[in-house]
Amino acid sequence: MEYRLFGGSGLKVPVLSFGTGTFGGGNEFFKAWGSSDVAEARRLVDICLEAGVNLFDTANIYSRGLSEEILGEALVGKRNEVLISTKATFAMGDGPNDLGSSRYHLIRSVEDSLRRLKTDYIDIYHLHGFDALTPIEEAVQTLDNLVQSGKVRYIAASNFSGWHLMKSLAISEKYGWARYAAHQVYYSLIGREYEWELMPLGLDQKVSAFVWSPLGWGRLTGKIRRNQPLPANSRLHQTADYGPQVPDEYLYKVVDALEEVAAETGKTVPQIALNWLLQRPTVASVIIGARDETQLRQNLGAVGWNLTREQVAKLDAASDITPIYPYWHQRQFLERNPLPVSSGAKLA
Which residues participate in catalysis according to the annotation? Predict the structure, then answer.
């Protein structure tokens, strides 16, 4: 397993981390992801550790805390071997202060997560989304206080816009507070908007990318192909409306290229899609999920080798789209504003 630096910090994280949204299946939405119980979670954790994957990502909102509880049980006796990442911001109750990034909600959320995870510290704590109603100073100072208290080691953002992240970093720098070392983002071969604004920001500010849904919300598993119906067993039946919308022809064009490269390499379609991400600038870790042991072992096969430059170019061309303004305009002046993905730069 390869390990990369966590943003501008000294912490090293594995290039693959395990996402535990599949633990619990506490409602219909999360059942579509998976419903691993404690026994299966322990087995999946052991497989990860055998492969060198020592970072486990969860969130308080995953099955309303059940994912954290199951992960905590699965890690009993292993806490010193692993890194735990969790998140807060979204609603955990019906009260007016049961959501957001206020001091009140974040402190309460950390205490609840610590209890569910059976630990006294969280290695990486994310704001799961941006809260425009809470002053950024309040949110970032609260996170800094949590770091100073020892309850949190490192902080990160998730699903921020470029200005959300940059303003937060500027405030941290102004007051000498802990700063976001990473940004958990949606990024895949059929979702490359991260490259337009957030990737250049990450390069400039040494903010690593933690990639969620690297298989395009379940569309790059190799089961969806041109002129074939959606498989009977697909999370898209229950969750498609909650995720990114992808035009069919664009998806099939990317899948066609993935299948070509898979045939050339002897790898699977999802392994090709994951390996492509691991060669992108700023990417520190790609979060993989798995319903079962077979799926996990397949995803773990995405490391230990690299696509050729020609294969990467083929996938780049198939998945390229005209960006929105001002990015299409900036593309006309690459000599003064080069694209990160064409510069060969890498934050690791």
Answer: 62
